[in-house]
Design goal:
The chain is an alpha+beta fold and 137 residues long. It is built from three helices and seven strands. Strands 1, 2, 3, 4, 5, 6 and 7 form a seven-stranded mixed beta sheet that branches. The longest helix has 14 residues. It is globular.
Length: 137
């Protein structure tokens, strides 16, 4: 018996300089279907690269254009009984505006400590730590 092929997806920990002038803010999305707070991500479309997917998902879910930076750890987990593999990047927001949809009904820009508290999944907190380590260099 062969292992199921993983669902491939991509996303990012989206950040911007804090409006106060010190530090950064992290973008978190709220998905009403799951009632969770997470980083923007989504499944790859046919003939799409993981980077193209990450950029598209960020635009669709947050309204932001961005610049991909450091590669962050890939998340591996089960989603509805199937293995899922999500490639992540650090991504600096370049601007845009959020419009709520049925998939993402809220966007919050938070300082890292508050983002950590709001994130639903421990794996998303690990990605936040990886972003902070990458931006501290």
């Amino acid at each position: 018996m062969t292992a199921p092929v993983p669902v491939l997806a991509a996303g990012a920990v989206l950040w911007r300089p804090a409006a106060t002038g010190g530090g950064i803010e992290i973008a978190l999305i709220h998905r009403p279907k799951y009632d969770d707070w997470s980083h923007p991500k989504g499944k790859l479309k046919r003939d799409e690269t993981v980077k193209e997917c990450a950029l598209r998902e960020i635009r669709e879910e947050t309204g932001q254009s961005c610049e991909l930076g450091a590669r962050l750890p890939t998340a591996h987990y089960l989603a509805q009984g199937r293995p899922k593999e999500v490639a992540y990047w650090a991504a600096r927001a370049l601007g845009g505006s959020f419009t709520p949809t049925h998939e993402v009904d809220a966007l919050a820009w938070l300082p890292p400590a508050r983002a950590r508290e709001r994130l639903t999944q421990p794996r998303d907190r690990e990605l936040l730590d990886a972003l902070l380590a990458a931006t501290a260099r």
